[in-house]
Design a protein that fits this description.
This protein has helices at residues 4-10, 27-33, 37-66, 76-111, 119-137, 170-198, 211-242, 256-290, 297-310, 326-354, 363-384, 388-394, 398-428, 434-460, 477-507, 545-550, 612-629, 634-650, and strands at 551-553, 559-561, 575-577, 583-585. By secondary structure, the chain is mainly α. Helix 14 runs antiparallel to helix 15 (477-507) and helix 17 runs antiparallel to helix 18 (634-650). It starts with a helix and ends in a 6-residue tail after the last helix. Residues 1-16 and 565-601 have low confidence and may be disordered.
C-alpha cells in the first residue's frame, strides 16, 4: 500500500511556468534579468551617463540664455525649468547613481566577495532609479516639468494659497520622483552596508579594506539616514499641494523654514554622499601611479568617517540669511570651519602619497591630480561661507554657484572620470585610448575653469543666481560670455570621453589582467572578471595584499618581484619596460586565484537571473502618476504589478 510519505516522495512538484527563472546569459534578456553586481554596475553607469548628457544640454541652454544681456533663448519659465532639471539631474540622476555604479562593480571585487549581499534587491534598486528618472522627465510631456529649483523651497512649491505658489504638476512630479529615487538609494545603501560588514574575505579586517570601500561604506550610512529626511519633507509638500494640509503655510500656522531645515539636513550630508566616493577613487589611483602606498592610510579612513559625522552638523550654513539668531549661526559657522579639517588632512595625505613617488602621468592620474587642485579651490571658497558676514554678502549670488561646482564637478566628476580610465581595463580587458584621454582631460579642465572661475568674480559684483536675464552696463557681460564658451568646451570634452568609452570597449588595446601593476584585490582576478569573481575566496594577509603577493624588498630596500610561487622562491628582477617606454614593475603571470575553468570544481553557483524586480518596479511609476494626477484608475494597475512582482520574487529560492 502506498503511504502518504511515499506519495510525497514520488509525485514531482512542478512550478507554474510563469515562475520559472530565466536562464539567458547574453543579449537583451540577460541584461533585463541580471542580478550580477558587475552588470548592474555597468547599467547604472550607462544610465547615469545618459542623464549626464541630458543635464549637460540643460546647462548649455542656460549658458546660451546668459551669454549676453537681455537674452531671448529661453523664457523666464523655461529658464526656471532648465536650472531646476539641471540641478535635479546632476545630483539625483547622475552624481549619486554614477558613484553607485562604481561601488556596485568594485566593492565585492575589492573585498573578495562573489556578489553583493542581496543580488535581487540590488537589481530592484537599479530599476527604481531608472523608472524614477523616466518618471521625472516624462513631466515634459505631461503638463510641465518642475520649475521650483532642485531644492523645491516652500512656499513656492507648497500650499496653493501661499504667495508665489507654482501651479501645474511640475512640483508634484519633482516631489514624487525624488521619493521614488530615494527608495532605490536606500536599498543600495543597505546592500552596501551588509555586503561590506558581512562578506569580506577571510583576513580582510576593516583596516585592511581599500579606502574606496571605506568611503562607500560611509556614504551608504549617510544615504540610509539622509534620504528619509527629504522623503518626509517632500511628502509634506505633496500633501500641502494636494490635500489641504498646512505644514509649510505660514498664514495657517505652518512654517516654511521647517522645510529648509528638513531639506538641508538631508542636503548637506548629500554633498558628502556625492564627494566621498570621489575621494575613495582618488585614494586608489594615486598610490598605483605614484608607486607608493597611500600615505597615512588610517588617517585618510578616519578623516572620511569624521566628515560623515560632522556633515550632519553644518546644514544651517545654507540658512544664515533666514534670521536664525546669533547663537545658532555662530554654532553652525564653527561646525562648518571644523569640517574643513578632515578634508584638509586628506589633501595633505594625497600630496604625501605623490611626494617622492615614481609618478606616471596617465589619464587617470591627471584626473586625480585635477581633482585635488579643483577640490581645493572649492574648499577654500567654501570656508568663506562659514564666515557669517561673508556668507551673507555672497548668498544667492553666482559666487555660491562657483563654489559648489568646484566641489562637485571639480571633485566628484573629475574623480569618477579618472576612475573610468583606471578601471576600464577591469571591465573589458582593454585600455581606453590614452592620447584621446589626455586631450579629454585638458579640454575638460580648461572648459571647467573658464566656466566656473569667473562666477566668483561676477558673484562678488552682485549678479544674483536664478535670474534668467540681466541688463547691459552691469559689468557682467564679458564674464558671462567667457562662462558660456567654457560650458561648450566642457561639452566637447564629455563628448570625447563618451566616444572613447564606446570605441575602446571593442577596439581598445588589450590590457591583460593587471595592466597598471595595481595594489588591490580586484586586480588579482581576470579582466573582465568571471561571473563568480573568484573561484576560491581569497585569504587576505595584510593591507594591499595583492601588491605584497607580487613584491618584496631586498636587503637595501629596493623593490623586487616575487615569482608566481610566492615569497619562498627566489626573487627576480623587478623592472621591465612597457610598450610606451615607461618603467613599471612586472606582475606575476596570472591571477592569484585558480583559473575560471576550475570554478565548478569548487562548487561555485551564483544566484539565478530574475525578472521579478523589474516587474515590481513597473508598478511604482504608475502609482506615481496616480498621485500626481489624482487618478484612481492608475492605482489598481500599479498595485497589481507591484504585488504580482513581489509574489513572484517571494517564489525565488531562499538559497541557490
Amino acid at each position: 500500500m502506498t503511504t502518504v510519505s511515499d506519495a510525497v516522495t514520488t509525485v514531482p512538484v512542478r512550478r507554474i511556468d510563469i515562475f520559472r527563472r530565466p536562464k539567458a546569459t547574453t543579449g537583451f534578456w540577460s541584461w533585463l534579468t541580471t542580478v550580477d553586481h558587475k552588470k548592474i554596475g555597468i547599467m547604472y553607469a550607462v544610465t547615469a551617463l545618459v542623464f549626464l548628457c541630458l543635464g549637460g544640454i540643460e546647462a548649455l541652454l542656460i549658458r546660451a540664455q546668459l551669454a549676453q544681456p537681455n537674452g531671448t533663448v529661453l523664457t523666464a519659465n523655461q529658464y526656471n525649468t532648465m536650472f531646476t532639471m539641471h540641478g535635479t539631474t546632476m545630483v539625483f540622476l547622475m552624481g549619486m547613481p554614477l558613484a553607485v555604479a562604481f561601488g556596485n562593480y568594485l566593492v565585492p571585487l575589492m573585498i573578495g566577495a562573489r556578489d553583493v549581499a542581496f543580488p535581487r534587491l540590488n537589481c530592484f534598486g537599479y530599476w527604481v532609479f531608472l523608472f524614477g528618472g523616466i518618471f521625472i522627465y516624462s513631466s515634459f510631456l505631461l503638463g510641465g516639468a518642475p520649475n521650483g529649483g532642485w531644492f523645491g523651497y516652500t512656499p513656492l512649491t507648497s500650499a496653493p494659497m501661499s504667495a508665489g505658489y507654482l501651479p501645474g504638476h511640475g512640483p508634484d512630479f519633482w516631489a514624487v520622483g525624488i521619493v521614488m529615487l530615494g527608495i532605490g538609494s536606500v536599498t543600495s545603501a543597505v546592500n552596501f552596508i551588509v555586503t561590506v560588514l558581512n562578506m569580506r574575505a577571510p583576513g580582510m579586517t576593516l583596516l585592511r579594506m581599500p579606502v574606496f570601500v571605506w568611503m562607500m561604506l560611509v556614504t551608504a550610512f549617510l544615504t540610509a539616514f539622509a534620504m528619509p529626511l527629504v522623503t518626509a519633507a517632500l511628502t509634506m509638500v505633496f500633501f500641502d499641494r494636494n490635500f489641504g494640509t498646512n505644514f509649510f503655510n505660514a498664514s495657517a500656522g505652518g512654517d516654511p523654514l521647517l522645510y529648509q531645515h528638513l531639506f538641508w539636513l538631508f542636503g548637506h550630508p548629500e554633498v558628502y554622499i556625492l564627494i566621498l566616493p570621489g575621494m575613495g577613487v582618488v585614494s586608489e589611483i594615486l598610490p598605483v601611479f605614484s608607486r607608493k602606498p597611500l600615505f597615512g592610510y588610517a588617517v585618510v579612513v578616519f578623516s572620511g568617517i569624521a566628515i560623515g559625522f560632522l556633515g550632519w552638523g553644518v546644514w544651517a550654513h545654507h540658512m544664515f540669511t533666514t534670521g536664525l539668531g546669533p547663537v545658532a549661526i555662530s554654532a553652525f559657522g564653527i561646525s562648518t570651519m571644523l569640517i574643513a579639517i578632515p578634508t584638509g588632512v586628506k589633501i595633505f595625505n594625497w600630496l604625501g602619497t605623490i611626494w617622492g613617488g615614481s609618478v606616471r602621468l596617465t589619464t587617470a592620474m591627471l584626473f586625480a591630480l585635477g581633482f585635488i587642485a579643483m577640490f581645493t579651490i572649492g574648499g577654500l571658497s567654501g570656508v568663506l561661507h562659514a564666515v557669517v558676514p561673508s556668507d551673507t554678502q555672497q548668498h544667492d549670488t553666482y559666487f555660491v554657484i562657483a563654489h559648489f561646482h568646484y566641489v562637485l564637478f571639480g571633485g566628484l566628476v573629475f574623480a569618477l572620470f579618472g576612475g573610468m580610465f583606471y578601471w576600464f581595463p577591469k571591465l573589458y580587458g582593454r585600455y581606453m585610448n590614452e592620447k584621446l584621454g589626455k586631450l579629454t582631460f585638458w579640454t575638460v579642465l580648461v572648459g571647467f575653469n573658464l566656466t566656473f572661475f569667473p562666477m566668483h568674480l561676477v558673484g562678488l559684483q552682485g549678479m544674483p543666481r536664478r535670474t534668467y536675464t540681466y541688463p547691459k552696463n552691469m559689468g557682467w557681460d564679458i564674464y558671462n560670455q567667457i562662462e558660456s564658451v567654457g560650458a561648450f568646451i566642457i561639452a566637447l570634452g564629455v563628448l570625447m570621453l563618451i566616444v572613447n568609452l564606446w570605441v575602446s570597449r571593442k577596439h581598445g588595446v588589450p590590457a591583460g589582467d593587471d595592466p597598471w601593476d595595481a595594489r588591490t584585490l580586484e586586480w588579482s582576478t581576470s579582466s573582465p572578471p568571471p561571473e563568480y569573481n573568484f573561484a576560491e575566496i581569497p585569504v587576505v594577509h595584510g593591507r594591499d595584499d595583492w601588491w605584497h603577493h607580487k613584491y618584496t624588498e631586498d636587503d637595501e630596500g629596493r623593490l623586487v618581484r616575487l615569482p608566481r610561487g610566492g615569497a619562498d622562491d627566489d626573487p627576480v628582477p623587478a623592472e621591465s619596460a612597457d610598450a610606451a617606454g615607461t618603467t613599471v614593475a612586472t606582475a606575476p603571470s596570472g591571477p592569484l586565484e585558480p583559473a575560471a575553468e576550475h570554478a565548478q570544481g569548487h562548487g561555485v553557483h551564483m544566484p539565478d537571473p530574475s525578472y521579478w524586480p523589474f516587474v515590481m518596479c513597473l508598478g511604482i511609476p504608475l502609482m506615481g502618476y496616480a498621485a500626481v494626477f489624482q487618478n484612481v484608475w492608475f492605482v489598481p494597475f500599479g498595485l497589481v504589478l507591484i504585488l504580482f512582482g513581489l509574489f513572484g520574487w517571494a517564489q525565488e529560492p531562499a538559497t541557490e
